[in-house]
Amino acid sequence: MVFQGKFIHVSVNPYVASVKTRRVIKKSGPFFELLKIGNYLTSRKDFVLLKSTKTGWNGWLPTNEITIKEEAKD
User: Fold this and answer.
1) Of 7, 14, 49, 62, which sits 20 to 30 A from 36 (CA to CA)?
2) Does residue 33 lie in a domain region?
3) Which positions ≥6 away from 50 have C-beta within 8 Å?
4) Residue ranges making up the domain that contains 32
């Protein structure tokens, strides 16, 4: 299970990822800090708020468009 505040490795789900999601992960990934789990408009858990460890980008990505692997950050 992945918890808020953890550093994670994010990859694209090649079957459903939008162009926006692909660009964000290519430019700012693959390592992010997980800031929040949950949709920014409702309480549904289908979005995650991420912060890039590479560029400082932060924003919401849909969970069906990404694959999350918990990683220890060196």
Assistant:
1) 14
2) yes
3) 8, 10, 32, 33, 34, 35, 58, 59, 60, 61
4) 7-70
Question: What domain count does the chain have?
Answer: 1
Name the β-bridge partners of 51.
33, 58
| Predicted TM-score (pTM) of this structure | 0.83
Residue found by looking up tokens 């999601």 in the block: 21
Domain membership of residue 17 (yes or no) is: yes
* Predicted confidence pLDDT, tens digits, the chain (74 residues): 567 788 999 999 999 999 999 999 999 999 999 998 886 666 566 899 999 999 999 999 999 999 998 875 55
Which of 64, 61, 66 has its CA nearest to residue 9? 66
